[in-house]
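Hi all, long-time lurker, first post. I run a small reading group and we've been trying to get comfortable going from sequence to structure in the token notation. Rather than ask abstract questions, I figured I'd post a concrete chain and ask someone more experienced to write out its structure so we can walk through it together at our next meeting. Sequence below, copied exactly:
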Amino acid sequence: MADFIITHDGGIAEYRLTRPESRNSLTFAMYQALEDLCRNPDGAKVIVLTAEGDKAFASGTDISNFKDFDSAQDAIDYESMIGRVIDAVQTAAVPVIASLHGIVAGGGAAIAAAADIRVATPDTRFGMPIARTLGNCLSVANLNRLVHLLGESRTRYLLLTAEFLGLQPLIDSGFVSEVLDDSGSCDERARALARHLTTLAPLTVSATREGLSRLSDRSIPDDVDLIQRCYLSEDFAEGIDAFFAKRKANWLGR
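-- Answer (accepted) --
Happy to help. Here is the structure in token form:
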């Protein structure tokens, strides 16, 4: 089975993650396909993001992608790639609706945060547990996006504790717009919203999205030193080894 499926129907492009056995962890090819779709929707008026399986919308980047990292350039290139993908989602030519359920973590959380509208299920849990899992860091651009959506206090809690936010704080912050009973119902609601959006004035929709993007623009400081500090550390290598050994990482702070 393919890792993802893209379908077009009635002016709606649906990008569906199809790796439930790995909690829909994202390969570089999956990221690239999403970027390509957002930059060129091929005639679609709305993009819907969905995922198969009961456990997760997306658990983050497939850790095997990090095994060969051995230089500062590898880390910088990876964060640049993620930045391009997330920017493509946020600035897509058409609105993006994300149907969330289960675990929404790491790269999957960043993608969800870049969507225009998010609907979710009661079991949705949103997190960036990298201080517990890999020992890497988020780019300043992604930190900025989370602060804008969730608030600085929730973002600090999320990153510093490596805990997940349950549904209620996501509702309270406005991150989630609607809650549906299960993933199937959530996907159908996302598709229904997409069909509704195709009936609205396209210039009004595009101007609104662009205006909101301009309001959220902030100057993003350089973060190359932070990326190098984490990705080239002994701790990052230890995090990857611990993940595949299915053991707790032994953090050394270097």
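A couple of things your group might point at:
The CA atoms of residues 147 and 153 lie 8 Å apart.
The chain has a mean pLDDT of 92.
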